[in-house]
């Protein structure tokens, strides 16, 4: 490629990517290349007339194929501050926007969530041709620029780096973007109301997800997934500090771990197997194997045909299991403290990310109490009944009632995080320990953020005989969970634990309303790509 | 259950667990319970004759069902040191061994990899009946004891806590083990040679894996998996310090990520899908989405019918992908430094675990150089040819040649870790960047520990056109990887990365010889359980 090729490219209005096959695309690309070549030749002739003194100062680089080890430091956009004023530096960034104005071209350069203004003007360092070249570069192309950092008198409100701009002296393209983007980044970060009012576009969810690589470049997406990385880190660091061991549990299993429903089947050589619906049985087996306090972070799979705002067929489970001495509340305290450490860490370390997301999706700051509020299921039910809800003592909470209870709890206790303890035994899995004082209840709990469940947990039955009885009561084929039940025959400590949905924690902490926003490449009954 | 039940139990020689159904087991258990009840009644009568002054000091606790919040601190076995001498404490532990001798009973109590001797003797605190009760407890049962910590004159060589023993005053069973263990822990930690010579048993791998919960209790297993948890932690901490973001990639995918072979098929509602053979395409898409430096830790699936010492059908991938400026060696340096940080961290923080494993599986300490040795594939081939190996310049390394090269490198450079760079293009995946100087080679590399591959990586093709050409050259259906190829159309930074096999790192660092030892619940073509 030569530098002239790009000059033929001009920005067009965004439109849907052609759905025709790649071969056709290729042919078109070849045609376009030939056309560009012709144009380039013409342009060459024209420009040969006026001598371009800056011709070595711009152009399209050959594809970076590691031809050389260039000893050139690149400064990150986020590090462009007034302390660097008057320094000559190199920067690599994308072209976020571009605006030509007479003999000048203003670019906004972007790297991740950071932006800076850059100016190329005809003068000592740039020729007319060079400014034209810059003005014709396609948005989202990646470029290297050499520039002098200049302090500005008036803050540049539209950029993250408001106190400086770059005066560009050289500009080279590292990777060109096609001119037609499947979505515009500025549309993708526009708050939902704003678009309607002012007749400006927003981007619907399917377009975002179909073009996830572009959608993930927005400041909002960058912030969401950096914060999510932080949730994982805080979860693990807190537990490792508390003496937990990280385990890895198999995802391909020979029998459905939580009963037969909602499980994906896998062809396994000459037989079939299942995808684990949770690491439940395996983390408990690790407790029986004396690891005492274990956690794992990994995918869990649910073949549930639920098309809701908070269900995915594959999500990331943050799982905890722990032996305790005398009462499962020892474990509940460990888990709630872990959640509190996560909330504090997010608040302290991810304020920029939280504020970035809030610009597009406003929400109240997340509130929690110390110690964590723990209500009994009965108490929760009483609050709901007092608010006019009719439901039986042993019924499970429906999603609307869950949310209503969250609002009632928020009003009364001013917290977005609480534990609901002692669920009816009937609505919990077979391995749940019954309440010693009332056989209709159980030593089990859910935890909620902003009125939605993020964790389900319980003391587990650690006695093989009672476990067998409970499994039979639930109609589970004992032969299929033999290895699991046998684990409890050779001395098993009392233990409890829980499983947290990572995407839900991120969604609810940030006050978002759809779990697909907090899963990079979400999977639901209707979506398997990208 | 009453305390008398246990008295009927006696230790028997280990033998294979009956393979008959659970129902039969249950019937037998019921019979045994009736028999025990009868015996208990008899025992009751006998004991009624002699008054038992200690009868409240021992027994079987009711199943811990969180009946009460007991305000009792339990001291961990590993914390039983001479500083605690003369203190009255409570300990929870398993019965590791038990030896009755006249009016005394010596127990070795175990918690995880730590052991302490405990003595119960007829006297002020224990009756004849209480000593008999203790002597009859089954191995691996979990007990609470109240005891006084006593310094000992002679070190107790057989225990980890060598300077103290416990004088037991109360003993209660928390969870009873069945008397017949499917394997003996002392057999399971015996070095392989030792068993043969002295006519003592060792435990074969299938017995271990069939009874993994017991096998994981051994000091060796505890050490292996604590160290493996450390590998994950060191990997992530090092990368987070280097500015990486953790990502979560989908495991259920619509098209085989690395070509069609060796992929597991999943039924996905009314269609089918595949299990990801690596997070390759997704971590690259994150680079195109400006995350710049990403890592992920998660399961990868290979439907390969390989029954070798180092292949699993499901293993844990530690994956890295990173944008670089001008040369992929920037990324190679990041990865090798990450490996070096892991080696150093293991050496500094897991010395006890390393030595524990070495007792059963002796090996030389793991050696590495700083900076890491990097050889070109051609150089490796020249070394092999000089050693008499015949192979073509563009052939891949066979496993025996890989190992031989490892030995040659160790002899010449004294390192167990090195990089082999610039593999022939023909033996690498379609997304590998060709060498700019020689089209037969590529910008790709493997990394080796003790002569076995632990990482495979490369600079990736970041240009949609070249990627299309390379995919077609490999006969890959372009329509199936459209979303992936399209990711590179809107500006893509040059990038490189690699995938590390967690179980292999643990195995090779510790000098073990079978990957099933470093996977808690290994999956291979013949094993799906437990």
UniProtKB/TrEMBL annotation, chains A, B:
GO terms for molecular function: aspartate-tRNA ligase activity; ATP binding; RNA binding. Its EC number is 6.1.1.12. GO terms for biological process: aspartyl-tRNA aminoacylation. Residues 25-41 have a biased composition (Basic and acidic residues). The keyword Acetylation applies. Residues 1-49 are annotated as: Disordered. Pfam families: tRNA-synt_2, tRNA_anti-codon. It is found in: Cytoplasm. GO terms for cellular component: aminoacyl-tRNA synthetase multienzyme complex; cytosol. It catalyses: tRNA(Asp) + L-aspartate + ATP = L-aspartyl-tRNA(Asp) + AMP + diphosphate. Homodimer. Part of a multisubunit complex that groups tRNA ligases for Arg (RARS1), Asp (DARS1), Gln (QARS1), Ile (IARS1), Leu (LARS1), Lys (KARS1), Met (MARS1) the bifunctional ligase for Glu and Pro (EPRS1) and the auxiliary subunits AIMP1/p43, AIMP2/p38 and EEF1E1/p18. Belongs to the class-II aminoacyl-tRNA synthetase family. Type 2 subfamily. Catalyzes the specific attachment of an amino acid to its cognate tRNA in a 2 step reaction: the amino acid (AA) is first activated by ATP to form AA-AMP and then transferred to the acceptor end of the tRNA. This is Aspartate--tRNA ligase, cytoplasmic. It comes from Triplophysa tibetana.
